[in-house]
Specification:
heterodimer; A: mainly alpha; MetI-like fold; 2 domains; about 75% helix; B: alpha/beta; Rossmann fold; 10 helices; about 35% helix
Chain lengths: ~300, ~260
Amino acid sequence: MTSQLWAKISPWQRWRERMVIRGLAFTAMVSIFTTVGIIFILGEESFQFFSQVSLKEFLFNTRWAPLFEPRSFGIWPLINGTLIIAIGAIIFALPVGLGIAIYTSEYATGWWQKVLKPVLEILAGIPSVVYGFFALTQVTPFLQKIFPNIEVFNALSASIVIAIMILPTIASICDDSLRAIPKTVRDGAYALGTRKSEVTLHIVVPAALSGILASFILAFSRAIGETMAVTLAAGATPQLTANPLVGVQAMTAYIAQVSMGDVAHGTVEYQSIFAVGLVLFLMTLAMNLLSQFIVKRYARKYE
Amino acid sequence: MMSQKFTSPILQATNLNLYYGTKKVVKNLNMKIGKKTVTAMIGPSGCGKSTILRSFNRMNDFIDTFSHEGEILFEGSDIYKSKIDVTEFRRRIGMVFQKPNPFSSSIAKNITWGPKINGYKGDLNELVETSLRKAALWDEVKDKLNDSGLALSGGQQQRLCIARAIAMDPEVILMDEPCSALDPASTLAIEDLIHDLKQQYTIVIVTHNMQQAARVSEYTAFMYNGDLVEYGPTTKLFSTPDEKLTRDYIVGRFG
């Protein structure tokens, strides 16, 4: 009789099964609660801030001087600082990162392939504070030889080290999306009597465009959020400028500056970092939404 | 082994051995393919028929372990030894693959890319139209030439790939199981197309579908385990084959 051969399912087993599901659901909830909590606190403190500083001043004043008299709270110098560094970083990193990805996915064999990927992973593992003092002690002195007028703290050296930081992200996502283009597509191109560089640049890279754009946006988003290197390299001078040779203050650098200083809780300076943090959050959120949109819009799926 | 004789073959394999690593997948093949004929290659999976097809335009070059002995002549020149660049052989010997593989660009660019790269000097718009007409796709896509090639149905994509091959004005079109990923209606459309194309091109088609081989081809080659077992006019091979192995395969006793 089978009923004697097989053990009965015990209540303990059923209880354990329920607990496992609940445990896993709880871990999933942690991420949701944290996100909601952070947004809530950002919103609440920012609300406090905007009850003292008008939104009009925040958005239309062009001077950021929350710690000195006369105070003013125009966000644009900080956004300017963040963008000039991030855009500069992308200008350096995108062509190089895409080049690396094309080389590793299409050309590199043997030794190169064995060395390139681990080296990029090491690059990704270097702490950002190291990049920061690397910018100060190596990059800026080097730049001073080319641009004698460059300031000790400047956006350009921050851009360069952030470009190095985001290079692995760009290279690795582009590499994945190039590899995802099926061999059959390359075969179709070769069968028309074409050469490898033509197939790679005209067929494979355009086919991987959605992944390339996604890597670009993800890297840009990381450059916007990067703190340590921009604080060390670019300085703490909020100003509206398009000149990469002078010091600027990025949003993250301002938050770090105020957080580390002895600003009392509840003051408007203290609350200002939440308002800046909210703007930063909205910018990265917009970037993430944009990247999802682009992936959907341009993804030409090969099954 | 019975083999088809052509006095001026367009493709000719002589004492051809093909290897993946140390495994010999095609054994001492001697085969001539006549100009403007449709030749079907049939046989069970792993018999070497696709390997032969893919060595006619050297697509096997992309497989690291592939090697060959013997020669393949195209219009009299050895495609593996000739000084002529492999890209020129591939331009003159087009290929259509098992799975439709259009480029992610527009329908028109799918057609014009190959000719442009190869320095085509004629009118590109005209080329798009004539190629699509020859591939029996023009009427379906003439109003959306700028849409992505990937937006088409599977059968349309495969006809686009045929149009793309035709646009290079090849002498031979190799087809590697071109209907295996398609539904019956699209398969029929492709088979009709092969009938039209044989006026102008030499077609070699690998298929695992014997009815298809019987419907579209004038000559059939039956491969088994790396050997060319029998090669002759399709009607004869399917009605009164010389070899017992051929007969057994055709009636479905194995494979």
